Amino acid sequence: MVIPSGLVLLTDRRLAARPLVEVVAAAIRGGAAWVVLRDKDLGYAHRRALATALRAVVPPGRLVIAGPDPLGGDAVHLSATDPVPPGVALVGRSCHGTPQLSTEDYVTLSPIYPTATKPGYGPALGPARAAALAGSVPWLALGGIDSPARVAECLAAGAAGVAVLGAVMRAADPEAVTRDLVAAAGVPA
């Protein structure tokens, strides 16, 4: 089972400095390995159309849909309370403490650092505490990961990767920002 690793981009069209598909395409060029489509406030038809548009720019099998409906794909990332849908190949779950898993393949732990996207959300776990909470569960660090130093700290603590939203979505040059963050992971873009 291949799980999300490296730099995982989370979407938010409202924060995107340019049209979302353009930002995602730039991040992929910069070395983002996976994309999680959030934007859960969209109606079903619009969200499914966005998933289709993103599949055109994201490498095959590397788009994960936040929520229990995979929108025509086979990978989902669930909240703490979402049911696991049948027939999906990859299941992730958002956690803010010790993961209580059943069929999930990985978790995101957040917030690792204070985050501008969700100010006041926390307290920040820090990489070492997140690693202790995850134990043997593959985990992605999420929240406030906006610099190469923070990427390196999370990976050194044992994260399989980092999930980034604001640093890339808000960037004037999302490709360059992604490339800098990916370089800290030691993965060629």
Automatic annotation (TrEMBL):
InterPro entries: Aldolase_TIM, ThiamineP_synth_sf, ThiamineP_synth_TenI. Residues 89-168 form the Thiamine phosphate synthase/TenI domain. It comes from the Bacteria. Pathway: Cofactor biosynthesis; thiamine diphosphate biosynthesis. Keywords: Thiamine biosynthesis. One of its GO terms (cellular component) is cytoplasm. This is Thiamine-phosphate pyrophosphorylase. The lineage of its organism: Bacteria, Bacillati, Actinomycetota, Actinomycetes, Micromonosporales. Condenses 4-methyl-5-(beta-hydroxyethyl)thiazole monophosphate (THZ-P) and 2-methyl-4-amino-5-hydroxymethyl pyrimidine pyrophosphate (HMP-PP) to form thiamine monophosphate (TMP). CDD domains: TMP_TenI (cd00564). GO terms for molecular function: thiamine-phosphate diphosphorylase activity. GO terms for biological process: thiamine biosynthetic process. The keyword tRNA-binding does not apply.
